[in-house]
Design goal:
The complex is a heterodimer of chains A (290) and B (284). Chain A is of the alpha/beta class and 290 residues long. Chain A has nine helices and 13 strands. Chain A has two domains: 224 residues, P-loop containing nucleotide triphosphate hydrolases (Rossmann fold), CATH 3.40.50; 58 residues, Alpha-Beta Plaits (2-Layer Sandwich), CATH 3.30.70. Chain B is built from ten helices and eleven strands. Classes of the chains: A alpha/beta (290), B alpha/beta (284). At the A-B interface, helix 3, helix 5, helix 6 and helix 8 of A face helix 4, helix 6, helix 7 and helix 9 of B.
Chain lengths: 290, 284
């Protein structure tokens, strides 16, 4: 069973909720942090990395200046403007290169090779309660976030082989390649939104995407009391579309403290937001029948 | 001049800073967060034109194809598979690079334009407005970002609103900017992701400054780091329920006199930093 926490818009509170769910869940629950270019979930827990392996998300073209005859065919073939003339020869602007191979195909002097880029790391962390967190760190600017997400999810499924444990997935913002890789094959989704025009628009896009992937979606409205009118608008949208709203989380300054002290919000008994998240966890557990 | 606004972490206030600053500085506003563009909510632009974004995607001419498989071997994105009976094209994996058609020895591959998104162009009260939006279920934001950047007027000033994260799409968005504004929040998550974003900007050799949004008693998390790295904090926008409410209904924060003064100071810091940078370049 897999549950993904999504939002469309960034910063609506995905990781606050996931870290709380992870704390409330039993020790057999596996966590996956799919926000590979800005992963934060591990910051909330003490853990020990038990494995770390290199990840290559793309290749980069390299031009051998000794072999280059300066014909310029590669520059014409490149659709990413990644090849520029230099001193009668050509060179690759690495950050624009998609490693597509077009330049190598057209080079008459066999001067171009493609080399694997070192794009990041796949990491398996064991948390204090001895549960697993599959995560990654994509190097800034590197390609291949979707592929990396698929790989760390594969690692979580391997841990779960022959078992039927719950897997909780922290998604990334947006609706692009890494989000699609985060939600493929997932049964349940919790969409976290906020009562703002931006939050609403982004939520609708994320919901449409989740629907296409046949995910059973639930909604939480975070900081609902910052604009109750907008929260009601979102709730009406959910009603009209048959989506269950399982949480209305109030604005709560304890969230700042929990983040600063790097402890899941539900550990603070005086947190009104934390208490709502506890309720949400009970509801979603029932819904998933775990 | 192009000023890129980025953050690493999502939801720290990139669009808030970008829209308010574009308004204050009379700059064009360019929304390159094409997965979830929101700038239009705050700037209410008059849209005059919509352009479709396509990527060239291969079509295999079965009559010419000999199933040699060179195309599938050439493709780096697994978008072409040779089943032995047919070459299958997985369109959503295609980067539109054209390598397959260049490699095909039988000249059996042509391309058709597959739509992946739209660009809207218009004006808002203080300048031109550009925004990209990716179609749902499309994975690739890159070509939309590149297409918008191609149509930006070169001799005009623009604010570039980027997507969260530090992926290749952010690199595409900030490429060739003169200055980077890093918007963060005073939290450990904010700091962690800010460091990654700064690493990226430094690799691209761009001057930068930090804005702390929703400033509170934990600002020292960011300020200590900024001081140790010698990066200026060019503005602090305090958290207030009033500001949160204004944001929620799509209002610019500079309608509030106090916040307007903060943006006025940010504007001056940015202009000064860019001027100093230009001065340094012309003397080196």
């Amino acid at each position: 069973m897999q549950l993904v926490i999504l939002s469309g818009k960034g910063g609506t509170g995905k990781t606050t909720i996931v870290s709380s769910f992870a704390y409330l869940a039993d020790q057999s629950t596996i966590k996956v942090d799919c926000d590979v270019d800005a992963s934060n979930l591990h910051l909330m827990f003490n853990g020990k990395d038990i494995s770390s392996s290199q990840f290559s998300g793309s290749k980069k073209a390299i031009i051998d200046s000794d072999k280059c005859i300066g014909c310029g065919l590669c520059e014409k073939a490149c659709r990413f403007d990644a090849i520029i003339p230099k001193d009668g020869y050509y060179e690759v602007m690495e950050h624009r290169c998609e490693g597509c191979n077009a330049c190598r195909v057209v080079c008459p002097a066999d001067a171009i090779t493609l080399e694997e880029e070192d794009s990041g790391k796949k990491i398996m962390t064991v948390l204090e309660d001895e549960s697993y967190l599959s995560r990654a760190s994509l190097y800034p600017g590197a390609d291949g976030s979707g592929k990396l997400v698929s790989e760390i999810r594969k690692a979580s499924l391997e841990l779960n082989k022959g078992k039927n444990n719950l897997i909780i997935i922290d998604g990334s913002p947006g609706v692009g390649c890494s989000v699609m890789a985060s939600i493929t094959g997932v049964e349940f989704g919790l969409l976290v939104t906020e009562p703002t025009q931006s939050g609403f628009e982004d939520f609708v896009r994320a919901y449409e995407l989740a629907k296409h992937f046949r995910i059973k979606s639930y909604v939480a409205i975070n900081k609902y009391d910052l604009n109750e009118e907008m929260a009601d608008t979102i709730e009406r949208y959910c009603d009209d579309n048959g989506i269950k709203v399982i949480g209305r989380i109030p604005y709560d300054v304890v969230v700042n403290k929990s983040n600063f002290e790097s402890k899941p919000l539900v550990m603070y008994n005086d947190s009104i937001a934390g208490n709502e998240i506890k309720n949400m966890w009970n509801i979603i557990k029932n819904e998933m029948e775990v | 001049m192009k000023i890129a606004v980025l953050s690493g972490k999502g939801g720290t206030g990139k669009t808030t800073v970008s829209t308010n600053l574009a308004y204050m500085m009379n700059f064009n506003y360019v929304d390159l967060d094409v997965e979830e563009p929101n700038g239009h909510i705050f700037l209410n632009p008059d849209i005059s034109e919509t352009q479709e974004v396509f990527i060239p995607t291969p079509v295999i001419n079965a009559e010419k194809c000999t199933l040699c498989g060179v195309c599938a071997n050439t493709c780096q994105f697994n978008a072409l598979i040779n089943t032995g009976k047919k070459i299958l094209v997985f369109e959503d994996l295609c980067h539109g690079c054209g390598a397959c058609s260049l490699a095909c020895p039988e000249d059996a591959i042509t391309e058709y334009n597959r739509k992946i998104g739209d660009i809207t162009i218009g004006t808002f009260a203080k300048g031109k407005f550009y925004s990209g939006k990716m179609l749902l279920q499309e994975p690739m934001a890159g070509p939309i970002i590149s297409d918008i950047k191609k149509i930006l007027p070169v001799d005009e000033d623009s604010i570039i609103d980027c997507s969260p994260g530090t992926s290749c799409n952010v690199v595409k968005a900030i490429d060739e900017s003169n200055y980077a504004i890093m918007v963060t929040e005073p939290s450990k998550f904010g700091l962690h992701d800010l460091k990654l974003a700064i690493e990226l900007v430094r690799e691209m050799k761009m001057p930068l400054g930090i804005i702390i949004n929703r400033s509170n008693e934990y600002d020292h998390l960011i300020e200590d780091y900024a001081a140790s790295e010698n990066i200026p904090v060019i503005g602090k926008i305090p958290f207030s329920k009033e500001a949160a409410k204004m944001y929620s209904i799509g209002k610019l924060l500079i309608e509030n006199e106090e916040i307007k003064n903060i943006f006025e100071a940010i504007k001056l810091s940015v202009l000064k930093a860019v001027k100093e940078e230009n001065h340094a370049i012309s003397h080196s």
